[in-house]
């Protein structure tokens, strides 16, 4: 039976609608994907514009090479960012010392030694740590870790670099462990089986075969975790103090770049003042730090990638 004229018109209209839909879907998806890109561009432009305003009031070299950070001084305000950078690096250094060995050891255990059942239980539990709000970590550092450290080392002040450094390290362990475990698990089993067949022990296979083969992924996970540690805010705001210092002391109060931004953002400075614009200059410095770390992670991942 031949279709009627109305049915032929309806089929033709349906084909036109499908073609129209096929044309609109890519445009819609492109616009959705562009939101994140446009947001990033907007953030960078905001940082640049406000930072330029700051540098019309404070010389660039005084900001970069100055050794004193006293923005709230009424007589002689100084904006040398080095004490804030040193405070940030102190916390990051301790976090690396804590997180890298534990994170990589956990990844090796999960990848090389744990049974499938144990891995199914342990890995999600480990990753739960990544979902704990950072303010909870901050109170944990201030009310538990610091008093414990003071029992062992009485010279440590209530606000110090060690306690937040340890807790930031604990916070980034799941990132290192999970990403490193993924990298180790991607090494083909045939390589492990070949090494075992040659008489190697399980530890020798893990240390001399699997870890070197997955080195690019492990290093990339560490670099990303360090980037996360540099940008951490709440833990250092609660437990590190607010004393910008350019020295090597880890036991006293310090101030990091993110902690200073929080301090000013709470209302310690009026809109349009030099202190207000200084948070954008500090934020831009922090942005440069994290961007360099991310570029480094991407380079390491590509440079040392092993393809099987």
UniProtKB/TrEMBL annotation:
Part of the binding-protein-dependent transport system for phosphate; probably responsible for the translocation of the substrate across the membrane. The chain crosses the membrane at residues 24-48, 84-108, 128-146, 158-177, 275-300. This is Phosphate transport system permease protein. The keyword Transport applies. Belongs to the binding-protein-dependent transport system permease family. CysTW subfamily. Residues 85-297 form the ABC transmembrane type-1 domain. Its main location: membrane. It holds the Pfam family BPD_transp_1. It comes from Planococcus versutus. It is found in: Cell membrane; Membrane. GO terms for molecular function: phosphate transmembrane transporter activity. The keyword DNA damage does not apply. It is a multi-pass membrane protein. GO terms for cellular component: plasma membrane. NCBIfam families: phosphate_pstC. One of its GO terms (biological process) is phosphate ion transport. Keywords: Cell membrane, Membrane, Phosphate transport, Transmembrane, Transmembrane helix, Transport.
